[in-house]
Specification:
Chain lengths: 149, 758
């Protein structure tokens, strides 16, 4: 699959870095904090008819129109189908929202516990006692090719 | 709600304003020629005709005051034509003064402001010019043409500087001032742009260094889009991105204002619309936004030099003689839109030279002038700019287009000419036509159409074998705001760009034709679908149906209800959202919610796919239901002959609305060509037209056995008995005076001759 990987793709999360933990269903993902602009709570979504299901809708962020994506579907996993929280990330193609099912929190990551073989992810980190968080590769995850596949 | 597809009186007034602008430019141009080279019958006839056409157009669109001034202008020129008055500087001044008055009056009339006083004054000034001044010398002696410029120059002591357009009006000023009434500052707003004016303005005319623009019409805010041309010192140049930044910041300020409004409501419980400071802020921001958008506007004709060069180069390359003409210098358009039009226009112009215009020898054998003509005509019409690229070449061979397309699509063979003509926009057709070596208009036209799609434009084509081809592009003036019809379907509101809305039909039962639901529009069946089911957001909608038109197809979409019409600031959905053919973008509503803006062509395509259960190979494969012409095949055909676009389009609208089919022609010659193609049931013709006037046309119709029984109505703004007599002698069945006609009277006159439309 042709995936566009941005130069900034290297801004992946690593040990000792601040990351945003994004709960999606039963799973938790980690995003490099410098990629995150803000988190919108219960954004007022407008459904986008005829769009692929990975696009949950669009919403108005202070006059800017921002798409909200189904994080589960983007990863090729179970769909989220809702956008209780929108994590707004900066990508080279503009700002986009990733749906989260619970309020995301900031943590400082400890050592990586190993590589993740999930698409568009990098490594797995242990957060808290027994929770694992998989670090997302934002550039790969939110590439036009992945979205329209 | 009234059907939005019918042009309003104001639309016609704007159309007239745009047309008049061009005609007034021509008048100025010709006046300068008259002054320079002296009178000739052709020149005087043409001057008279232009003034006459402006008068007629003004009367038709209800600008009575403008019509009066134009009438006075026409009378003055008539005096000259009849050699009752000579050509001298004061005459030129008087006419220029009249032209300037008309230019001042039209915007006032458009804005609905009172302009009676100015009109009367202008009329009197012109009528004053009719009074014999120095009668003996002027009336008796043949006007000595070459002497006039020098006479005017001499009167102000200015050395004659060749064909200097500027020195003319400046030098002439004092002599006008010495005449009975002080003329307004007569320098045409377009003065410096008319003709070559290499010489610097003569220094010896200090009194003429008066303000270039008439003071009374000076708007409070200078709008570059309102026809103003000013000297270099009043202009600043700035990089486009700075303007864009300005537009963006204003957009942000507007968004912030909306938030401020909701904060007022939520935190202070004050309805923002009752807070005057808030209202002031919103109003100023709106004005600011409009001004900033205007700052992005550039004349369409800024592309002309590039196109002119392309024409010249290609003509040389192919050994053809081609004249490139432009009209509509004042039409402006958003820079972003124009940038995207550059390539399509270049393509069309090159096509016209390469495939349209015949080599000089061939033209001679055909009885055409050896020099071919390619014309670029731009005109603002409501929120759109219409750009036409026309040529007087060989036209498109529809039969061969059909044949070429027929190899891959058997339906092509059954298409009528109009539908078949649109096959040239199909991708892939070009190669086929090239191989067979036919005039190959198809080359890359699919690319042209695709570029136009990107700027929400439409393209239409008309072609007459042996006569030429015209491509008409309609694009929105700006991509930033779009006039939309807002509808609700399944609880969601959507905006449909008004430029693609043809009509709104009240709820009515649909019929099923070969498995597809159809409804009747303008006397012909149009497929109908529910907007909610086309978008996949719900089931049937029970309210009115909106008839939309894509590039080639018409479709009715039922909605739940209509909301309103408004200007939507359309934003893109960003790069990450895949391109959705049915969604053009989105706007942010005052309450912060999002309004989706739909795209006609994409909607139609989805609707058809849904209804037919098949996937169509090309995005909107051409053929089938053509958008034009309206009217049923059985309804009577009316041929409207008038050189004034405003009048033609007005009449087309009136008759099509009444259910007739309408064809138009710009002069008698063209009318005869149309009539040879299809015999009309009635001809409605103007008198004064270039090439062949209405009298001659009537005589020709009467002299041809096949046509002699076609009723002819002469429609003119000249109410003279002499004309009426001549018209009836030529064989006209009726005679209607434009200034006195209203829609109902015109229709009843036609119905008397034809019976009501089928």
């Amino acid at each position: 699959m042709a995936v566009e990987v941005a130069p900034e793709a290297s801004t992946a999360v690593g040990a000792g870095q601040l990351a945003l933990l994004v709960p999606v269903g039963n799973d938790t993902y980690a995003l490099p904090l410098e990629r995150v602009r803000e988190v919108a709570v219960e954004p007022r979504l407008t459904e986008l008819p005829t769009a692929p299901p990975v696009v949950l809708g669009i919403f108005n962020l202070r006059g800017e129109i921002v798409p909200l994506f189904d994080t589960g579907r983007l990863l090729g996993l179970r769909p989220v189908n809702e956008g209780a929280y929108a994590v707004l990330v900066e990508t080279e193609h503009g700002i986009a929202g990733l749906a989260a099912t619970e309020m995301p929190l900031t943590v400082r990551l400890s050592e990586s516990v190993g590589r993740s073989d999930l698409e568009a992810t990098t490594e797995t980190f242990l957060v808290g006692d027994r929770r694992l968080a998989v670090a997302l590769n934002v550039a790969e995850l939110l590439s036009p090719a992945r979205i329209s596949r | 709600m009234s059907p939005p597809e019918q042009l309003s009186e104001q639309d016609f007034q704007r159309l007239f304003a745009a047309e008049a602008e061009g005609r007034l430019d021509t008048l100025v141009d010709q006046l300068l020629t008259l002054e320079k080279s002296g009178p000739s019958p052709e020149l005087l006839a043409s001057l008279f005709r232009e003034a006459h056409t402006v008068k007629g157009g003004a009367a038709v669109v209800g600008m009575a005051q403008v019509a009066r001034v134009a009438h006075a202008l026409e009378d003055l020129l008539e005096e000259v034509r009849r050699e009752r008055r000579g050509v001298d500087a004061s005459l030129i001044d008087a006419v220029l003064g009249g032209i300037d008055s008309i230019r001042t009056l039209i915007p006032l009339a458009l804005a609905g402001e009172d302009h009676e006083a100015q009109a009367s004054e202008a009329e009197q000034r012109l009528r004053g010019g009719l009074q014999p001044r120095g009668t003996a010398a002027e009336a008796a002696g043949q006007p000595a043409p070459p002497a006039s410029p020098s006479a005017s120059a001499a009167s102000s002591g200015t050395p004659v500087s060749g064909h200097d357009a500027i020195s003319r009006s400046e030098a002439a000023q004092p002599s006008a001032a010495s005449a009975s009434a002080p003329a307004p500052p007569t320098t045409s707003p377009r003065g410096p742009a008319v003709g070559p004016a290499p010489a610097a303005p003569s220094a010896a005319a200090p009194s003429a260094a008066a303000p270039e623009r008439p003071a009374p019409s000076e708007p409070a805010v200078i709008h570059p889009g309102e026809g103003g041309h000013w000297s270099g010192s009043e202009m600043v140049q700035m990089p486009v991105h700075r303007v864009d930044e300005l537009v963006r910041l204003i957009g942000e300020a507007s968004a912030a204002t909306l938030r401020l409004g909701s904060a007022l409501l939520e935190q202070l419980e004050r309805d923002p619309s009752t807070v005057s400071e808030y209202r002031d802020l919103v109003r100023s921001l709106n004005e600011l936004q409009e001004l900033a958008l205007r700052a992005r506007m550039v004349p369409v004709m800024s592309l002309a030099p590039r196109l002119r060069r392309a024409v010249r180069d290609l003509a040389r390359e192919t050994g053809k003689q081609v004249r490139f003409e432009t009209r509509g210098e004042d039409a402006e358009i958003d820079r972003g839109v124009l940038d995207r039009l550059a390539d399509p226009l270049l393509h069309l112009v090159r096509n016209a030279v390469d495939h349209g215009i015949e080599p000089p020898e061939e033209r001679r054998t055909l009885g055409k002038p050896p020099e071919g003509m390619v014309r670029l005509h731009a005109m603002q019409l409501g929120s759109e700019v219409i750009i036409a690229v026309s040529d007087d070449g060989r036209g498109i061979d529809v039969a061969r287009v059909r044949e070429a397309a027929g190899r891959s699509d058997s339906t092509a063979m059954d298409m009528d000419d109009e539908s078949a003509l649109y096959l040239i926009f199909r991708s892939g057709l070009s190669t086929a036509t090239r191989v067979t070596g036919l005039s190959g208009r198809g080359v890359g036209l699919d690319a042209v159409r695709a570029s136009l799609n990107a700027v929400r434009g439409r393209i239409e084509v008309r072609s007459d074998r042996g006569q030429g081809t015209e491509f008409r592009i309609a694009v929105p003036i700006t991509m930033a705001t779009l006039r939309c019809l807002v509808v609700n379907a399944s609880g969601q509101t959507y905006a449909i760009p008004l430029h693609s809305v043809r009509a709104v039909l009240m709820p009515q039962p649909s019929t099923t034709v070969s498995g597809r639901a159809m409804t009747m529009f303008d006397g012909r069946p149009v497929p109908i679908s529910s907007l909610a089911s086309v978008l996949g957001t719900g089931d049937g909608c029970s309210g009115p149906a909106v008839v939309i038109a894509g590039l080639t197809r018409t479709h009715a979409l039922a909605v739940d209800h209509l909301v309103d019409q408004r200007d939507v600031v359309v934003k893109g959905l960003g790069e990450l959202v895949p391109r959705l053919p049915a969604v053009a973008g989105a706007g942010v509503e005052p309450d912060g919610s999002i309004l989706l803006v739909l795209e006609a062509a994409g909607l139609i395509e989805r609707a058809r796919r849904g209804e037919m259960g098949t996937h169509y190979p090309s995005a909107d494969s051409v053929g089938g239901v053509a958008v034009e012409p309206a009217g049923t095949p059985h309804s009577s055909l009316i041929l409207v002959v008038d050189d004034a676009l405003t009048v033609r389009e007005l009449q087309r609208s009136i008759f099509e609305h009444a259910g007739y089919r309408v064809q138009v022609a710009a002069n008698g010659d063209e009318a005869l060509v149309r009539m040879a193609e299809e015999r009309p049931d009635l001809v409605l013709t103007d008198i004064q037209m270039p090439v062949m006037d209405g009298f001659v046309l009537t005589e020709k119709i009467r002299s041809q056995p096949a046509l002699s029984s076609v009723p002819v109505i002469i429609l003119t703004s000249r109410a003279s008995d002499e004309d009426r007599k001549r018209g009836l002698e030529a064989g006209a069945d009726g005679y209607i005076v434009k200034s006195g006609f209203d829609q109902a009277a015109l229709l009843s006159a036609v119905e008397r001759l034809l019976g009501a439309p089928a």
